Amino acid sequence: QESLRNPIVMAWTLNVVNAAKTDLNAGNEGDQDKLNVAGGKVQIVPQSEDREVELLRQSFTQEDAELLTDDFLIKCLRYQDGNRYIAEKTAKNFLRYRIESRWPLRIPQSDVKGVLQTGLHWLLWPPAMPELQQSSHWKDGTDGTDGGPAACLVFNMAKLDPKLAEVEVYQKLSLFMMECATDHPEVQHRGVALIINFRQVQFANFQSLLSIEDIKRGMRCCVGSFPCRLRRIWLVGAPMPVRLLTSTVSQFLNPKVRKRIRIAHGQSGLKDMAKDLTPCVQLPEHLGGW
Questions:
Q1: How buried is 124 (Cβ within 10 angstroms: 0-12 exposed, 13-18 middle, 19+ buried)?
Q2: How does pLDDT run across 207-237, given as a tens digit for each residue?
Q3: Phi/psi at 31 (5° precision)
């Protein structure tokens, strides 16, 4: 119980929950006056993408508008299924964080070169051979399927070495990988899955790896401030306190958010994760793939 009240564990778990909720705010009460509402549902009036980008750009000051590329604004629009008003929030949060934190608007490889080869981050794609791809159980919001996440980002927490670089550099690497992933139109439309692999990480080490400031930064740099939909978050081999707190917090979430956060414990958990993600991405064997 003492470990459950640990501020690092609590802050980290809430960070995961907030990440799972980031793209569920379309059509919230604060935006209803800006959207077309029919039959109790939000409907976005379709226009050409170029026109939507032009209108989105008009919502910024001239100085800020000049900082944002058309490609980035398209990412924001596709991330929010064309909802210009929520896309605007994402882009403004993105600008605010990058400017206040003195992060470049597009992270260059040179900023993360020292940790790029540590093995902390992997970016997994669908199977290269069509015959290895399987039918998808992932829903697209209608009666059909959309193939599920178009890529999967893996964090191997045992590879996080604070002696090699500060945690902020590793966080920059996370965003560098997400920027690369979201350059692909399929990722812009279908989002990504996230695997946080805790195997070989002792709980005591986990507590010492991160500070509250690191966790706050990790939330601010991506939650609501970067255009990438997280379709699933898998926690693999998480320490007991993390599993218990995640399970407890999940009980109070709405079903759509709750189903996004999964826990893989032991071989049976890896099989469940593989069953969930293998139709979408090619997992390595030690994460349940083949």
A1: buried
A2: 777 788 888 888 888 888 999 998 999 999 9
A3: -110, 0
Closest among 16, 10, 12 to 195, alpha carbons compared? 16
pTM of the model: 0.83
- Measured CA to CA, the distance from residue 101 to residue 78 in angstroms comes to 26
Q: What is the pLDDT of residue 77?
A: 94
User: Which string of DSSP letters, residue by residue, matches the chain?
Assistant: -TTTT-HHHHHHHHHHHHHHTTT--TT-GGGGGGSEEETTEEEPPP--HHHHHHHHHTTS-HHHHHHS-HHHHHHHHHHTTT-HHHHHHHHHHHHHHHHHHT--SS--HHHHTTTTTSSSEEEE-S-SSGGG------B-SSSSB--S-SEEEEEEGGG--TTTS-HHHHHHHHHHHHHHHTTSHHHHHH-EEEEEE-TT--HHHHHHH--HHHHHHHHHTTTTTS---EEEEEEES--HHHHHHHHHHHTTS-HHHHTTEEEE-HHHHHHHHHHHHTTTS---GGGT--
Q: How far apart are CA 85 and CA 35, in angstroms?
A: 8
**CB atoms near residue 97 (< 10 Å):** 19
Tokens 């992932």 belong to 138
Amino acid 6 reads N
Cα dihedral angle (30, 31, 36, 38), rounded to 10 degrees? -40
What's the token pair of residue 40? Answer: 């109790």
Q: How far apart are CA 14 and CA 182, in angstroms?
A: 25
Closest CA to 112 of 176, 196, 162: 176
Which range is least confidently modeled, 143-152, 179-188, 278-287? 143-152
